[in-house]
Structure formats: C-alpha cells, structure tokens
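[Solved] Which block belongs to which protein?

Original post:
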Amino acid sequence: MSQNNIIPSGEDAWKTRLLIYGGVFGVLAGLGAAYILIKNAEREGRVPDISPGEGVQVGLLLLGLMRAIASLGK
C-alpha cells in the first residue's frame, strides 16, 4: 500500500512553504490596505470611492511589484 502525503517532503517542500507564506502575506497585505482605506475614509467623514481608473493604477502598481519580487532570485 503506497502512502500519499498531503504535504510533500524533500525537493518539493520548499515550493509548498513558499506558496503558503506568499498566500498568508498577500492576505495580510490586502487586509492592511483595506484597514488603512477605511481609517482614512472615517477620518475624512466619507465613504471610500475608488474609480475604475484608480483601480487600474493600483493593478499596474501591483504587477510592477510582482515583477520586482520575481526578479529578486536572479
């Protein structure tokens, strides 16, 4: 009977750890950004209003950040 482990060991273990750490960091960064946005809106007494143009700007900024992170290993 062969054993199929859910968590890989050996060569592939670093990949799983990296995905988990990256996912946790992404969630924490997203929650932090949302918290800052909420606090700024409360301080100014308004409801946050993000335009589609601002959304595109943030998306492009995040793509640039991901490219910079990806080039760290080179």
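(Second protein starts here: sequence line, then its structure tokens.)
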Amino acid sequence: MPAALQVGVPGGPPLIVVLILAAALVVTAVCASLIVYLDAVDRDSSHALAWTVAALLGGVVVWVLYLVVRDEVGRSGLAAKGRS
C-alpha cells in the first residue's frame, strides 16, 4: 500500500516552475519584438519585418544590435538626413 501513496503527477511542481519560466521568456521575446517592429515602422524602415523576425529569433544579441544601429534606419536616422 505505501507504493500507491508515492504515485503522483509526472513532473509535479518542478514542471510547473519550468513552464512558468518558459512562458515568461516567450512573453519577453514577443514584447521586445513588438517594440522593435513599432520603432522600425515609426522610422519608416523598409526592413521592419526583418528586424522583427530577427529580434524574435535572435534574442538579446539582436535587441542590442538594433539599439546600436536604429539611428541609421529610416527618415528619423542619420542616413535620412543625408549624413553618411
């Protein structure tokens, strides 16, 4: 009879913690990609969709890269003002 008491839900609480952490990472990636997309569209970038997909799949590396080069993208950036 004690063996029956040891049977539980596969994964249990650790599985729930892992699922919550995974969901938090996915939500963060989607929100950051949305911010990148909205900023790129606001700057009239012709590559807004490409930046969004890269931000979604590339993670923090692409987010930082976009922040570095975003001033050179679109009409609000340096390239639009005629400076190279």
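Accepted answer:
You had them paired correctly. Confirming on the second one: The radius of gyration is 21 Å.
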